[in-house]
Design a protein that fits this description.
single chain, 251 residues, mainly alpha
Length: 251
């Protein structure tokens, strides 16, 4: 428990001191929300009748939370392995669960702050988001989403050995996934074959569940289906992460 507490405190201090990390974690996704919100203000998606804001608010929130979880642990594991910090932790009584658990708690905290910021901005005059009555279900959905993408970040942080490779692999996965999963553009307005393709992407399930919980674009069944999809991907990513995790550059 002392090792877990120390690692969590050290990770928190490192995160808040790095202004670049703070900007790209909180401000950068908000820029997308503001830009899309202003461009499509007052417009509805013809195929569904829902406003563009209902899509972009939920989609950008999902992408921002997932992105933060992937990059947060991906860069940390790579850097700690490069600096031999992981090797020293391995030689101590601290278990691997303390390493991953400390980053998990930080990711949950970041996700909570992101959610409050995003929803707060989306509800401001000029945007006018009205949360659905099921909005409390947003929190368990985001916990599942953060868990899933944190495990994806463990995989990336285990196979990458430089900051450039972490950024390259993560962006290669997360940016196309954002567009193909409906984070930046409504899936309802996309071709049917593209909508089917998005079903193999974990962000699609997070988007669907967040949309149904936050803005009512779906029912409880959609929230449940999204959660089941996230659990399946979490199990897959967890199994792969356990196989590829490395304490050092060679083992």
């Amino acid at each position: 428990m002392s090792a877990y507490t120390a690692l969590t405190a050290a990770g928190f201090r490192a995160q808040v001191r790095d202004k670049t990390t703070v900007f790209f974690t909180f401000a950068f996704p908000l820029i997308f929300l503001v830009v899309f919100g202003l461009v499509f203000r007052g417009r509805d998606v013809e195929e569904s009748g829902f406003s563009y804001l209902s899509y972009t608010a939920a989609g950008v929130l999902s992408w921002g939370v997932a992105n933060a979880a992937v990059f947060g642990i991906g860069f940390t594991l790579m850097q700690w392995r490069s600096d031999d910090i992981l090797r020293m932790i391995r030689m101590s009584p601290a278990p691997l669960s303390a390493v991953i658990g400390s980053r998990y708690v930080l990711a949950l905290g970041v996700g909570l702050v992101q959610s409050v910021l995003f929803v707060g901005v989306a509800m401001m005059p000029g945007f006018g988001l009205v949360p659905d009555s099921r909005w409390p279900l947003l929190f368990p959905v985001l916990v599942l989403g953060i868990t899933t993408f944190l495990l994806l970040g463990v995989i990336i942080g285990s196979v990458a050995d430089t900051p450039e490779s972490v950024a390259g692999i993560a962006n290669f996965l997360m940016l196309p996934m954002a567009f193909l999963s409906g984070s930046f553009f409504p899936l309802d307005a996309m071709p049917e074959w593209l909508q089917k393709l998005s079903m193999v992407l974990p962000l699609r399930y997070l988007n669907d569940a967040v949309s149904a919980a936050l803005v009512g674009r779906g029912d409880l069944g959609d929230i449940g289906a999204g959660c089941v999809g996230l659990v399946v991907f979490a199990v897959l990513f967890g199994a792969l992460a356990a196989r590829v995790f490395r304490w050092t550059k060679t083992s």
